[in-house]
Amino acid sequence: MEKVHKDTLIGVIDAGTRTVKFCVFRPGHTKEIAEHTVDIVTHTPQEGWSEQDPKEILSAVRKCIDNVVQQLGLEAINIITLGITNQRETTILWDKTTGEPLYNAIVWNDIRTDSTVDIILAKVPDNNTNYFKNICGLPISPYFSAFKIKWLMHFAPQVKKAIKAETCLFGTVDTWILWNLTGGAKGGKHYTDVTNASRTFLMNIELLTWDPLLLHTFKIPANILPEIKSSSEIYGRVARGFPLENVRISSILGNQQASLVGQRCLKEGQAKNTYRSGCFLLYNTGISKVQSTHGLVTTVAYKFGSKPAVYALEGSVAVAGAAMKWLRDNMGFMGDIQKETESLAQEVFNTGDVYFVPAFKGLYAPYWRKDARGIICGLTAFSTKQHIIRAALEAVCFQTRDILEAMNKDCGIPLTKLHVDGKMTVNSLLMQLQADISGMPVVRAQSQDITALGTAMAAGAAEGIKAWEIYSEERELVPSDTFLPTSTESERDARYTKWKMAVQRSLGWALAKKSSVMTEERYKLLASIPCGLYVIGSFGLIALSEYLSPTS
Ligand SMILES: Nc1ncnc2c1ncn2[C@@H]1O[C@H](COP(=O)(O)OP(=O)(O)O)[C@@H](O)[C@H]1O
Ligand SMILES: O=P(O)(O)OC[C@H](O)CO
C-alpha cells in the first residue's frame, strides 16, 4: 500500500436525483468525516415530465461545499482533490458564451420523449427496440439522453438558435458541474467520463467514442458533445470564485457505477444492487461486453486512466424508493418515510395478497415497456394502507428478482448472494423481504455512502493514492451484515408467479385512449356553466366531456 500523508483528504460531489451532497473522506477509511446535503426541487410541468433547474444544482453544490469547508475549519486545506458522481442520463443544454441553461434539465425518468422514441422506432426495421444495442448497448427508450436532446432540438426554439450559432453545449450533470467548476464561459472543461457517456445512447460501447451513425440518426451535431475521458484522471482545477479554488478534479463516475466501485465489485462476476429513488443492479463482466438477450443493458462500469475499460450488465428499475415518496406525498399514507415505512409495513403480517406494480412512467429492465402504468391489484375490503406500503416494498424486491432472473440467463452463472447499498437499505424489513423473495443471502453494506466512497477511491487512484487497495478485489473490506432467506422455494415461486400476473396487467395501459373522467379542471369548468344548461341530458354531458378530454 502506498504511503499517504495522514492529513490528506478527498472531497466528493454526489449530485443525485433528489439531493446534492458534498462529503469528505480520509484515504483508507470507508466513512466520510464530514458531509452536507441539500434537497433539489423536481418540477412536473405536465404529467410524466420531470425537470430540474441546472442553476439550482450548481448553487446546491456551492452551498454543500461551503458548509463542509466550514465544518472542517483549517483542516479543509487538506482536501487535495475532488470527485464527481451524478444521476445519469439527465440532460442539460446551455450556451457556452453566457453559461446560461437553454432549458431546464430533463431528468432521466421524464417520459415526454415517448413520441420521439416512436419517431426513431419508425426508422428501424421491424420497429426493433434493440436495433442499436450492438452499437451502444442500450434499448430504444425515453430513459436515455439522446431522446431528450432530440426533443429539445425540436421543441425549444432557444436550443435551435444556439445550435445554429454553434454556441450550444450538451452535458449530463457531471459535465455541467465540471464545466462550471473549472471556469464556465471562461475556459471551463467540457468533458464527461465513459460511464456517463455510455448512458447517452450516442457512444459506441466498443470504441468509447461518439458514434457517427447514432449522431446521424438523431441529427445531433458533434460540436455540442463533451470530450469523453476515463473515470479517473485529472480533468482540471476548480476556478476562482468557487470554494476550494485550485483543487484538482480527478474522478467522474455515474452514481450506479460509482457504487459498484465503492462495493469493490472489481472482479468479473461480482454484482451490487443500489436502492435509492430507482434501483440499479450492476454485474461486472470484466473487459468483455456481454450483450443481454433478456432485457438488460450493456454499460461501461469504469475505466481508470489508461487501463482498459471494464463493462457491466445493468438492470435498471425506475421506481424503488420513489414509490415510498408517492405513498407519502400523493396518498398521505405517512409523514416521514425513514421513520414510518418500516414500522407501518411491520404492522401487517403480509400484503394480504395485494401487489403493487409502480410503473408510473412505464417499466424499465427487463421489460422496457413505456406503455405500462402503475397498478395496485388484489385489493379487498380488508386491505389497509399498511398492506399497500408493504406491497410497495415487495415491489422493489420483485423487480430486483426480475433483474436477477434475466442476469442469470444472460451470464449462465447465478449469483449466490446479493450485495446491496443505498439509502433504502436502512429498512431491515425490505432487506429480509428481498432475501425471502430472491432466495439468496442479502449482504448489506454498513456504510450508506458507498456511491461517494467509490468516487473518492477513483479520485484517489488518479492522484496515486491507493490507500483503499482499489485493485485488491477484496470485497470483505466493506463492512456489512447479512439477511438470510426464510422462505421455501415453492412459496417464493408461487408469489413470484403472482407478481408476473400483476406486471402483465400493468402493460399496454398507456396505449389505451385516456378515458374522459371528471378531472378537477373539467369539474370546475362544468360547475361554471350556467344552471339552465345542467338540464342537458346525459348525452349532452358525454359530448361536452369528450370535447374537454385532454386527448381530444
Ligand atoms: N427507511 C426507508 N424505507 C423505505 N424507503 C426509504 C427509506 N428511507 C429512504 N427511502 C427512500 O429511498 C430513496 C432515497 O433516495 P436518495 O438516496 O435520497 O436520493 P436519490 O436516489 O434520489 O439520489 C427515497 O426515494 C426514499 O423514498
Ligand atoms: O440519483 P439516483 O440514485 O436516483 O440514480 C439515478 C440513476 O443514475 C439514473 O440512471
Automatic annotation (TrEMBL):
Q: Which organism is it from?
A: Acanthoscelides obtectus (Bean weevil)
Q: Which residues form a coiled coil?
A: none
The enzyme's first-digit EC class, named in words, is: transferase
Return the protein name.
Answer: glycerol kinase
Sorted alphabetically, which keywords does the UniProt record give?
A: ATP-binding, Glycerol metabolism, Kinase, Nucleotide-binding, Transferase
Q: What InterPro entries does its record include?
A: ATPase_NBD (IPR043129), Carb_kinase_FGGY (IPR000577), Carb_kinase_FGGY_CS (IPR018483), FGGY_C (IPR018485), FGGY_N (IPR018484), GK1-3_metazoan-type (IPR042018), Glycerol_kin (IPR005999)
Give the Carbohydrate kinase FGGY C-terminal domain ranges. 278-462
- In its UniProt record, which GO terms are filed under biological process? glycerol metabolic process; glycerol-3-phosphate biosynthetic process; triglyceride metabolic process
Q: Which family does it belong to?
A: Belongs to the FGGY kinase family.
Membrane-spanning residues: none
Q: Which CDD domains match?
A: ASKHA_NBD_FGGY_GK1-3-like (cd07792)
Q: What is this enzyme's EC?
A: 2.7.1.30
* GO cellular component labels: mitochondrion
The protein's matches in Pfam families, at most eight in alphabetical order, are given as: FGGY_C, FGGY_N
One GO MF term on file is: glycerol kinase activity
The pathway this protein participates in, as annotated, is: Polyol metabolism; glycerol degradation via glycerol kinase pathway; sn-glycerol 3-phosphate from glycerol: step 1/1
- The UniProt record lists the Carbohydrate kinase FGGY N-terminal domain at 10-262
